[in-house]
Specification:
CATH architecture of the largest domain: 3-Layer(aba) Sandwich
Number of domains: 2
CATH superfamily of the largest domain: Response regulator
Strand order of the largest sheet: 9-8-10-11-12-15-16
Shape: globular
Radius of gyration: 25 Å
Distance between the termini: 91 Å
CATH class of the largest domain: Alpha Beta
Structural class: alpha/beta
CATH topology of the largest domain: Rossmann fold
């Protein structure tokens, strides 16, 4: 090969190197520019395994609101980019997910579908300046550490606390002139045991006798022993704070045992009618639950939202769906105002799907409860309290 050929080859290599370098730089600049034109928000949710039924519904609400915002030009000209991490409902994976989203440089994180994962990372949250919006996690300590008296200044709850729902259940019992109540709960669940404690304490204040509290373990499917013990106390009211798939089993077994009194639950009951194998066990019963949202509530924005959601996803929205949607509304409002996002969220006062949204001194939402009645196998709006 001649010197001239060598020089040409060397020149080709140099040119190729320069072109590759320019491509890499261009991609970097494009990515940087693209990132600067978007607002990144993290979604730390259970998208697989048992808790995914709640995480996916929450994601649907998040996606629906983000799509609306982006289709309308974004926030202050910037589109929202949602970065997801599946925590599988596992507290240890939630910690990994939080650190992953933090490294991605998100401007805020939406999480807290269940209390167990929320509590595993809330102390870590409070040491950072990232605004955290919890959706349906109801453990009281999610926003406020009762032992230290510390309010987590950057953590906000869209849903309600165990104390709120437990107290509403006791107040409902009082409104029905209940004298003798019982509780069936899962002692291994923060959600269930916290609600039980709140209900029992409020019953004491209201003069309602709680004659028995029966405990079951996680993943239980047979509740006959506990239900027979409860039946022996002849209660007028049974509070069962747990989730819909298990509640469906309990209600069917209670019906077979001939237990016929008012039964009441928290927001975890939402959608229980879909999980009951024989709908006849729900008919001619006095079954109620507390929630923040009813898709058929004649007031507010609930009905319009429900129609849009059903058209998009082919199913009726629940509190998880609404909480995901409203979490984005709160974040959107805070960013539009400019300045300190955390401070703007703290001062939130906007109209959301389930009503006015604001936060109290513990960063919990100020909300009214909706009571739903299960009537003729259907879940129907009963009253707001």
């Amino acid at each position: 090969m001649t010197n001239e050929q060598n020089n040409k080859k060397r020149n080709y290599i140099i040119i190729a190197f320069i072109l590759v370098f320019l491509c890499v730089v261009s991609l970097f600049i494009f990515k940087k520019r693209s990132d600067n034109q978007s607002i990144k928000i993290g979604a730390l949710l259970p998208l697989t395994k048992q808790a995914s039924q709640y995480g996916i519904a929450t994601k649907h609400g998040i996606d629906m609101r983000i799509e609306k915002i982006n289709n309308s030009g974004g926030i202050n000209g910037k589109k929202i980019k949602c970065i997801e991490f599946d925590d599988e409902g596992d507290p240890s994976k939630a910690v990994v997910g939080y650190n992953y989203l933090k490294e991605k440089g998100v401007s805020g994180i939406i999480t807290g579908v269940i209390s167990e994962t929320a509590l595993s990372i809330v102390d870590q949250f409070s040491n950072d300046d990232i605004p955290i919006t919890m959706t349906t996690a109801s453990a009281d300590d999610v926003t406020f550490n009762k032992e230290s008296g510390k309010v987590y200044q950057n953590v906000f709850r869209i849903g309600v606390t165990n104390s709120f729902q437990g107290e509403k259940a006791a107040e409902f019992a009082k409104s029905k002139n209940i004298k003798n109540a019982a509780v069936l709960f899962c002692g291994e669940s923060e959600y269930s045991s916290g609600l039980k404690d709140s209900f029992v304490n409020k019953c004491k204040d209201l003069g309602i006798n709680v004659s028995i509290t029966e405990n079951f373990t996680l993943n239980s499917v047979d509740f006959q022993r506990q239900l027979e013990n409860i039946k022996s106390k002849i209660p007028d009211f049974i509070f069962i704070p747990y989730y819909r798939d298990t509640i469906a089993l309990i209600l069917a077994q209670a019906d077979k045992l001939g237990i016929n009194c008012i039964m009441f639950g928290p927001d975890g009951w939402r959608g229980v009618t879909k999980y009951v194998s024989d709908i006849s066990c729900l008919k001619n019963k006095n079954y109620f639950y507390c929630d923040l949202f009813d898709p058929y509530d004649p007031s507010g924005n609930s009905r319009t939202f429900s129609e849009e959601y059903q058209k998009k996803y082919g199913e009726v929205p629940d509190l998880c769906s609404v909480s995901g949607y409203e979490a984005i509304q709160v974040f959107e409002n805070a960013v539009r105002l400019g300045g300190n996002i955390i401070g703007n969220i703290k001062n939130t006062n906007i109209n959301c799907i389930s009503g006015n949204m604001s936060f109290d001194k513990y960063n919990n939402s100020n909300r009214k409860a909706v009571i739903i009645r299960i009537e003729d196998g259907e879940e129907k709006f009963y009253q707001k309290v």
